[in-house]
Each structure stands twice: as structure tokens, then as C-alpha cells.
Amino acid sequence: MSEHPAPEQAHPKGSENHEPAHFIEQIIKDDLAAGKHAQIHTRFPPEPNGYLHIGHAKAICLSFGLAERYGGRVNLRFDDTNPEKENQEYVDAIRRDVSWLGYEWNGGEFYTSDYFDTLYGFAVQLIKGGHAYVDHLTPEEMAAGKGTPTQAGTNSPWRSRSSAESLQLFEEMKAGVHPDGHGVLRAKIDMAHPNMHMRDPVIYRVKRAHHHRTGDDWCIYPMYDFAHGQSDSIEGITHSLCTLEFEVHRPLYEWFIETLEIFPSRQIEFARLNLDHTVMSKRKLLRLVEEGVVDGWDDPRMPTISGLRRRGFTPESIRTFCDRVGIAKRENVIHFSLLEWALRDHLNRSANRAMAVLDPVKLVVTNYPEEQTEMLPSENNPEDPEAGSREMPFSKTLWMERDDFKEEANKKWFRLAPGKTVRLKSAYIIRYVDHVMDAEGRLQEVHVEYFPDSKSGSDTSGIKAKGTLHWVNAATAVDAEVRLYDRLFSDPTPDGHADRDFTEFLNPDSLEIKTACKLEPSLAQADASRPYQFTRLGYFVLDEKRTAETGTPVWNRSVTLKDGWKG
Ligand code: ATP
Ligand code: MG
User: Fold this and answer.
1) For residue 127, what are the domain limits?
2) Looking at the predicted structure, is the pLDDT value of residue 397 above 50?
């Protein structure tokens, strides 16, 4: 696995001399230089029908990041036009996740549902101007009438009805006179338009559904395409940044802007983020949650922001990742390992070190005084002198890692084995004496002797030890469960197989639970806001949710120390 390049320096805010990092930033710079806008105004418009994922983080970092750098404003807008799938839990989770990433919606928080009256007014305006009509075709008839990309569609027989008649019917639809599905409002554009989205799209439908904010006030709801662009205009969004799938919708949004004579927000599209070994659509993530494949939206294996947070990812690492991924017009797939690199890069600088033994075996220091315990200082973070140090208790009986011992070892084995000498991290050099196996041939204890004059920091022993092992003092150890994670899917593109369901590619080994782990005592005070590097094992964070559920501390491995992924 190749090393990922170091991240760029953070860009100074509002810097006029800043070299644009991508084409969207270039457009913004040019627009500001040309005096087109006094201030830019962007927005992030999630639909509250699921939790945010790392793909959304890319969109968030883009829209919030640009507003931040160019002294602009950014709105958080909940695009809630689809009452059946949306709810308050999702709204709350989205707000929490955007804040956690470190962003503030300084332009305000809005809901498309706040504009239902205005949008209704826009629809009436279109009808009155002869630009929309109420249609009664069945969905099948309407689909057949749309034509194909190479063949023009046919006009609905209702297309030529009078504005007055459409207006009356539309008012009746709003008043609840008509049953669900009885009529729709369609924009009257061009049934032969080369862009299928321009062939008289449906803009309103009758639907008796309870809305999470407007309750039962409405029984007609605008279609996403009729709500999204106009919401940008209502809010005075100057640069409306979205993913490429909306490119083909842009002519329709521009048609609405021109026909309604409203604020001309400019939409600019960029490629969505795709990450290997995972799925990114909320619909698919919801299935994993509903089918109990994962422990909720915030399962540490999920690509959701809340899952990554619970896994131990930091806002800094996610922002660095988004920066590295960049903004372009072309779709590609980013390796999950880039995300892991970004986390290591941040935690190596910021996380305190600690010692934990995941698969413990007794290590008895035969020549150490029976009743003695001494406190040995250990540096918290060699990368950060200000992090200070802590005192580690050391005594005759310790825990060591089972796989740090071998009965037979060659010259390249720098851990414990008959005849071997190693250093215990921040403590003494020890030499093998003997070991105890049980009847099944499983290692029970390793006995060693220590060299009193080899203490770390004041070693006068002159003994060379090639390997350094981590350890935990047995009497003061904290018992814990530790969870090790692997990719959620074993296939790099689980939803890229036309004839197979993505759940067929779930990795059966994505979660490994270690139950009898031993942690150094300082970790008893840990909380989820502080990630740690466990010496030789990786970066870990306390899982507060599982800990509360189980009553014993549960720790998640966020990432290993090195990129060990082969595939
Ligand atoms: P999903 O397909 O996961 O349900 P969505 O596009 O339906 O996502 P929205 O809530 O509508 O989700 O998205 C809000 C914003 O986030 C949109 O502007 C969308 O373009 C952007 N976005 C969604 N997914 C990605 C992604 N993978 N990469 C970059 N931006 C994304
Ligand atoms: Mg969507």
C-alpha cells in the first residue's frame, strides 16, 4: 500500500490571493472579482430521511468551506417534501453531525416545508400564465406519453384545458376534494424536448400524508424538482452546489426561474464521493439498520458521520479527507484506506499513548519483590511534548500479549521465547526463564527475570534488547471489551453487481469482539471525546453507547497503526 501524501496547509480564511483548489472555487472567485455578488451564499440541503454519510461530508465541506473562506453565508436547509420518509430524529441527527464537523449555518436554518405557501403561489402563477395544467392521466398513460430519449412524447388530452379550469381543479386538490392520485399538476413546457425532464414534468401531487412539520395542513405536496430550485431562489442562494445527477435537471430549474422571474441561483454540479467496500445511499443504509445487520445508524462500521464518530474518527480527519479527495466533474471511487490515513495522520499528532493487552497471558517477573509496586513515568505523546507523562504501576505480576510469545523462535523473532531478551515499554529489560502450558498445550504463564539497572530513562545495564513489548500491571488493570473492525463489505463495490443484492457481499468478519482485555488503570477515566493510541495496537476510543448498555468498558479500534488492508 502506498503512503498517502501529507495534507496541505489549511487555507487562510477569505484569502484573496488563494489559488483556487478547483473549478467551483474558480467560479466563485471570478464572480466576486466581477462584482456579481457582494457576498456569496451557499446551502447544504439534506433530505431528513436518514443519517448523513461521508458523501454528505464532502458536500458539507465544500459548501461550508467556501462560504467560510470567502466570507459568505451558508444555510442549512431540510429538503422535506416527501412526508412519508422524513422525521424529526433525522433532523436532529443531521444538525448534530454538521455541528460536530465544525460548521455553523450562519445564514440560518430552513425547511422547504416553510415554503409550501410560496410554492403553492408559484404553481398558481404558472397556471395563470398558461404554464401549467391539471392532468388526469394514469401513471402508466403518463409514462407512455413521455416518449423516449430518441422519440418525442405526445401531448396529454388535458394539456389544452383552460387556465381557469386548471386553477379551479388545483384549488380543489388543495382543499381535499379529490382523492389521492386523482390529479397532478404538470408544467407545460415541451413534450418533444430532447431533455426528458422538460417534457411536462409533474410538479404537484395529491397525497394524504402526515408531514413532520406541517402535520395535516396539506394534502398536496410539491415534487422535489419544483421545490429545490425555487427554495434556492427564495433564500437568495448565489451558488447552489450539488452532485452530478442534478445536471440534467438544471434546464428545468432555469425554466422555473425564468418563467416565475425569481432570483437566479446558479447551480453547479460536482462528482459525488464513492468509497470502496461500502454503500452510500441512505436507502441502502436504512436497510442495514432495519434488517439488524448493524447496530443502528451509528454502528462503527457504517460510513455515516455518526458511525465514523463512534468509531473514533475526528472532525479534523474527515475534513482533511474531503480536502484530499478534491472536487471534480468526473466520478471515481476513493479507497477507504485514504480515510484511515487521514485519521492516523491526525491522531498520531494528537492522541495520547496508553497500554492495553487484548489477549492477555500472565507475565511473572520472578526476581521482582513480591509485595512491591513502583510507579514508572511514561510519555503521553512523543509527538507532543506538552502532553506530559503519566505514572504506570509496575509489579511482579503483569499481563502480556499471547502472541508476543513463541515456544520456538528464530533469530528474527524480537519478542519473547526461550533464550530471548526484550524491553518492557517504559520499564525494564527482561529475560526469559520458563513458561507454563496447560493440559491442552495452551500457554498459561511466562516467567522472566528483570534487570534492575535497565530502567527506561536511567538504563546503565549495557544490555541490548531488540524488541519492545507492551504490558499492563495485573493488580491494577481495568477489564474491558475491545472491538476490532474490518471492512463492512468484502467486495469493493457491493452495489455494483446488477444481478446480486448488495447484502450478499457483507463481510462476515467485519466485527471481532475481544472480551477479556486488560487496560492500564489511567484508562478508567477515559471518555469518548479522547482517542488513544494503544501501543503497538492502533488507535482506540471508548464506545460510550455500548459501555452504558453492557456495564463494562467497551472500546472500539478506530484504525490500525499501519495500513494492513490487502485488497
Ligand atoms: P443518498 O443517495 O445517500 O440518499 P441523497 O443525495 O439523496 O443521498 P440528500 O439528503 O438529498 O441525499 O443530499 C444532500 C446533499 O448532499 C445533496 O446536495 C447531495 O448532492 C449531496 N450528496 C449526497 N450524497 C453525496 C455523495 N456521495 N457525495 C457528495 N455529495 C453528496
Ligand atoms: Mg435524495
Assistant:
1) 23-272
2) yes
